[in-house]
Design brief:
The chain has 237 residues and is α/β, with parallel strands linked by helices. The chain has ten helices and nine strands. 36% of the residues lie in helices and 18% in strands. Helix 9 crosses helix 10.
Length: 237
């Protein structure tokens, strides 16, 4: 049965008090509380450094079975190498996530590319075979040149999701290239009507047998976390 995983990009935000985190909850307990209300989080930590096994085991200990960690691919892959000659480091990066994979708590791995990285089908063709088919991946392209059928076909052939990133600058078309959907909702505000539309899109995806991973914007206020919780409650209801 298809499942909804909803949350935010990150969880360690004191500004979320008291609307989401109670005043008495210390920062060391943020993730534990977060996981009582939401069932997934997108992790940016892995973008800048390789996580230690101790760090990942700590996250696992603070969250229940079924809670999924979607991890952002390291910047060395997406912004420095830009997929070129990246086989060895890809193995190193994926090996660092092994504790999450073994625990069956690893969500999709998000490749968020630089806005200046233009479409390069040759480089994409060389890189995609390096990704193991037993893991889930989502690719977020931030240059419009990537938004073509040729790219969608390549992702679909490998079961990799086109990340449906929605922001003030660029909205990716709703093209599903995998057995799950990956939404990044980055606008500053989502009115009730917009949130109702999101709920409808998620419901259609689940009805089609595809899991849905939905992450709202985080940062300065708790609205994203509250909207994610609203989405979870609507689906459960």
């Amino acid at each position: 049965m298809a499942q909804l995983f909803a949350g935010t990009s990150g969880f360690s935000y004191p500004a979320w008090k008291p609307a989401f985190y109670p005043k008495a909850v210390p920062s060391a307990k943020f993730l534990e509380h977060y996981a009582t209300r939401l069932n997934s989080v997108e992790i940016n930590y892995t973008y800048r450094q390789l996580p230690s096994a101790k760090t990942l085991e700590g996250w696992l200990a603070q969250t229940p079975a079924g809670f999924a960690f979607s991890c952002k691919a390291n910047m060395k892959l997406t912004h420095i190498m830009k997929l070129k000659d990246a086989g060895a480091f890809t193995e190193t990066f994926l090996r660092a996530l092994e504790p999450l994979r073994v625990a069956r708590r690893l969500g999709p791995i998000l490749y968020q590319f630089a806005p200046s990285f233009k479409c390069d089908l040759g480089r994409l063709d060389e890189y995609l075979p390096l990704l193991p088919i037993d893991l889930r991946f989502a690719f977020e392209f931030r240059h419009e040149s990537w938004l073509t059928d040729a790219v969608y076909d390549r992702l679909a052939a490998r079961g990799i999701a086109l990340c449906l990133a929605e922001s003030e600058k660029l909205e990716v078309p709703k093209v599903f290239t995998a057995d799950f959907g990956y939404f990044r909702l980055r606008k500053a505000d989502y009115a009730p009507e917009a949130r109702a539309e999101i709920r409808g899109q998620v419901a259609e995806l689940l009805a089609a047998g595809r899991d849905a991973y939905v992450y709202f914007k985080h940062e300065d206020d708790p609205n994203g976390a509250l909207w994610a919780e609203e989405l979870v409650r609507a689906q459960v209801g």
